[in-house]
Amino acid sequence: MRNLTSILAAAATLAASTVASAAVFGGLTASAGLLRCTTGVSQATNAAVIATNWVEIDYCSGYTEYLTFTTTSATAVQAIGANAAVYGVVASGTTTNYKLIVHTPGDDVISVRIMGSPNTKMGFDRTAPNPGTAGSLSGQDFVPVSMSGAWIVYAHLTDEIAICPAIPRKDLFASLHIRFSDCFKYGDYLSFKIDTDRVN
């Protein structure tokens, strides 16, 4: 009986450890935020379009770092901070791949925001509703591709985009917020895909 109790206790400890070390996607939500009016939407996204957005990284220490994207090719961008970096590559007309890493041990990441404004040229296009905003096509929701870490990651789209004076169709957004339930550390990894559209 003592051996059985020990085995069950060890199994429970192993199971708890496995759950605690697994990265989990907590889901995608959206809110209206600030309206961004445009005169048109297309699939002509490239690195120069993505680079009109900026990145805000919140560290677990309470420090926030503000970064701009730089283009590394016609389809690739990067925003490299003191401890963390965000990379993006346009894979197709309806898919852009992003990845987040902490490249230097020290301060860990608790949230990342890829921000848009009335002057930025890129929008994040959701899968539904379809059809949505004219020119946005079918869209691609935020979908994790590869994750490693001991946290739950949540994605939130905000700041609706509309071809004014038409009302927003609630499929196109200027800003993406990514939040972790616990610190995203050196050695952790997150890559995800999402549709990015060009807005005029």
List the keywords:
200 residues; 15 strands; 15-stranded mixed beta sheet; mainly beta; 50% strand; globular
Brief synopsis:
With about 200 residues, the chain is mostly beta strands. It contains two helices and 15 strands.
Describe the protein in words.
- The chain is mainly beta.
- The chain has one domain.
- The chain is about 10% helix and about 50% strand.
- The chain contains 2 helices and 15 strands.
- It has helices spanning about 1-20, 45-50, and strands at about 25-30, 35-40, 40, 55-60, 65-70, 70, 75-80, 85-90, 95-100, 110-115, 120-125, 145-150, 150-165, 170-185, 190-200.
- The protein has a 15-stranded mixed β-sheet that branches.
- Mean pLDDT is about 90; it is low at about 5-20.
Strand content: over 45%
Computed over alpha carbons, the radius of gyration is 19 Å
State the low-pLDDT regions, or none: 4-20
> Mind describing the biggest β-sheet?
15 strands, mixed
Terminal residue distance:
72 Å
Number of domains: 1
Mean pLDDT over the residues: 90
Number of helices: 2
Give helix % range. 10-25%
Shape descriptor reads globular
Order of SSEs, N→C?
Answer: HEEEHEEEEEEEEEEEE
